[in-house]
Design brief:
This protein is an alpha/beta fold. Helices cover about 30% and strands about 15% of the residues. It binds zinc ion.
Length: about 400
């Protein structure tokens, strides 16, 4: 059986056709807010149930609980604050006079009306506490921490309702938790392993996916790359998706692997992000979750295996599949980890993105030990494959 959503019930806060028509008609009378893109993505994800059991942006009690204990006030594990705190640059003035009990129309980056917020509380946002609790640092050089300190000083809390899906360049490949659950059931999958990623696949990623597919307790693999806002220098979302399409199409049995984009802002929070991203994938119907080395890490902020240890003793209702660093060993002639290979580090071919970037920059051919030629072609054949 597919796991129930976090907290037991998949949240559904999507307007019916009638509600949408009514909301569209009253739009001119409503205060409007065009939040920063992170909150735009979050509003949609809340409404489609990806962040179940959240029904809206966090109130003060929830923010305090999550930042103090990594739990929601009802005791459920939750590690990432989900808040709406518009800065002056992102419309704080337009909601200055909105009081608890009133509605605000949320607009996307193109000025389209996409969601409603029913404001239940306004409270001062402790941005330092947010950064320390979720990211373990207040260093402004950390990409997400800089974003937190750019938020407004006051948060608006309350339930959201989705009026219409966001338009993304990756729209057709993005699925809701309801859609993935239906797709898994249609395929007869009961035990689905989720693979979180934010890079084009190289052989170390592929090895983890294959190890997972070989398990007798896995019916299918759900590859779910984050293709929303990434940090500067990451590969562009469309490049990530196209390279995964190439891998799946050319190498994996079609009835065992499913691929869909996941449009959120990436949280480079190491262990706290690993738990958050695992909970979200449980909501999409995955009972197993792959955790490689240094998941959701950035720079040297996190111990590479803190993302493994964080799952110890945490009852998430899913099975974390923890894998060590993998490499190609020349002596073994295979992908391996230190658990399966006896040879010294000098025999290992590093499969890191850094190695791939260097080869691409030098216009060197990329060996198949590191990356599939179909994927390499996408990376080398595209101008400007990186996010700005
Ligand atoms: Zn070896």
């Amino acid at each position: 059986m597919l796991p129930p959503a976090h907290g037991g019930r998949l949240v559904q806060r999507v307007a019916s056709d009638n509600e949408r028509a009514r909301r569209d008609a009253e739009l001119s009378d409503l205060p409007k807010l065009a939040p920063f893109i992170d909150a735009v993505y979050d509003a949609e994800k809340i409404a489609i149930g990806a962040y179940s059991p959240l029904e809206g942006f966090m109130d003060r009690a929830t923010f305090d609980s999550v930042t103090a204990d990594d739990r929601l006030p009802n005791g459920l594990p939750w590690t990432m604050p989900i808040v709406l705190a518009p800065s002056d640059q992102h419309g704080a003035e337009s909601v200055r006079n909105v009081r608890a009990g009133e509605d605000v129309a949320l607009m996307d980056g193109k000025g389209r009306f996409f969601a409603m917020l029913h404001v239940e509380e306004r409270y001062p946002l402790d941005r330092k506490r947010f950064a320390e609790a979720a990211y373990g640092t207040t260093d402004p050089a950390h990409p997400n921490v800089a974003d937190i300190f750019a938020l407004g000083g006051e948060a608006l809390a309350g339930p959201v309702q989705l009026i219409r899906r966001l338009e993304t360049p990756h729209g057709p490949t993005e699925l809701t938790p309801t859609e993935t659950r239906e797709a898994f059931e249609k395929r007869g999958w009961k035990n689905v392993a989720a693979y979180q990623c934010r890079n084009p696949p190289h052989t170390a990623h592929e090895y983890l996916q294959r190890l997972t597919l070989e398990r007798s307790d896995v019916d299918g693999l759900f590859i779910h790359p984050v293709v929303g806002r990434l940090k500067s220098g990451d590969y562009r979302p469309d490049v990530i998706l196209r390279s995964y399409e190439a891998l799946v199409q050319h190498y994996y049995p079609a009835d065992r692997v499913m691929l869909a984009g996941f449009t959120i802002t990436m949280r480079y929070a190491g262990p706290k992000a690993a738990v958050f991203l695992a909970i979200v994938r449980k909501n999409y119907g995955c009972g197993l979750y792959i955790v490689g080395r240094d998941q959701a890490g950035v720079g040297k902020y996190y111990d590479p295996y803190a993302c493994h240890r964080v799952f110890d003793g945490l009852d998430l209702g899913l099975v974390p599949l923890r894998y060590e660093e993998t490499f190609f060993c020349r002596k073994c002639g295979w992908m391996a980890t230190t658990k399966t290979c006896a040879h010294p580090a000098s025999e290992r071919v590093a499969t890191s993105q850094t190695r791939i970037r260097q080869a691409l920059a030098a216009r060197e051919p990329l060996p198949v030990e590191i990356i599939r030629p179909e994927v390499a072609e996408i990376l080398s054949g595209t101008e400007g494959v990186l996010s700005g």
